[in-house]
Amino acid sequence: MNILIDARVINPVNIDGLAVYTIQLLKRLQYKEDNIIVLINSIIDLSLHNIYSTNIKIVRTNISPLGIKNIINNYLLLKKYKNYIYHYPQFNMPITNIKKTVCTIHDFKHFNNLTVFQKPIFLYKLYAQLTTKYSINKAKKVLAVSDFTKDEIIQHIPSAKNKVITIYEDCDNSFKKENFEKNVLDKYNISKEYYLYVGAWRPHKNIFNMIEAFLYMQQKTSRDDIFVFSGYKDKVYFDIKELEEKYNIFNRIKFIGYADIKDLPSLYHYSTAFMFCSLYEGFGIPILEAFNSKTPLITSDNGAMSEVADHCSLVANPNNVLDIAKQMEYILDVNIRNEYIKLGFKKAEEYNWDLQFEEIYQIYLDIDNAY
Questions:
Q1: Residue 32 burial (C-beta neighbours within 10 Å; 0-12, 13-18, 19+)
Q2: Do 47 and 153 have their domain in common?
């Protein structure tokens, strides 16, 4: 079987959920005895992610899969692989003459009224919607990462109903080793009890509300905790200085930047709770990172978050600062905290990348046999 994976979605600076998904796919695909080609950015080193196999042929290119100006270059790049199964792990598949195509949809936020786009917002939103519709119509199978995302796809594109299938994600295996090192806290100068957020710093991640909730809870309880934020500083969406000036948070909020992935399990584990009160998520890999790290979770009562966490976390209305603060205070009870650690750790066992990969691989086989 000839398989082409478009891994140009991996950002060497920001290993986000999309990159995690693609890396996990490649980690398992490398052991299959197929003719596998991986399109990748010229500066990506897959060996850093334990992908070495000689079964995989790496094709490096500086052509971005995104943007109108790259349409012709992408078409010519992909043309030579017209007999391959082409898996594009995002919503904006390049225009191609390849017939055997698969795309993965991680969320449908670009069809909602969320502030997640660069300016000019209208043009970015239009581009995202048009490319999503093309990808879904072009694909023989569409992989949704949650039932919530699957339902949104069908709601907006009813013709996709018979080609969409839900295949869950999972976190990296490094979170499943239960190897926690407290000296990691020294590396990031964390000396107090802390709440934790890991992820992108974008408006729909609801960072402002979580900070306001933390400050309210802290004032009410007279505690001396800090709130630690780790993630990629995306200045396109908001400036960190704006947060610092608005909330006077210099001694109470700690921004540690992009933490090393090997340190994350420990950062999760020793936190009071992991905060993930987004306004919208299509899945939420950090939920499983927290569960596997034996960390209690406070998340939102909407979107895919409630589906993935499935009653194994405290939930809050992400638009209600007082509700978020209430849950942050509630988790301080040792018995409640321990109960949710057990529930989350047990729930994490239901997600398994090896099993989920085999479902994806079977889709490749089905498409290859049918077309």
A1: middle
A2: yes
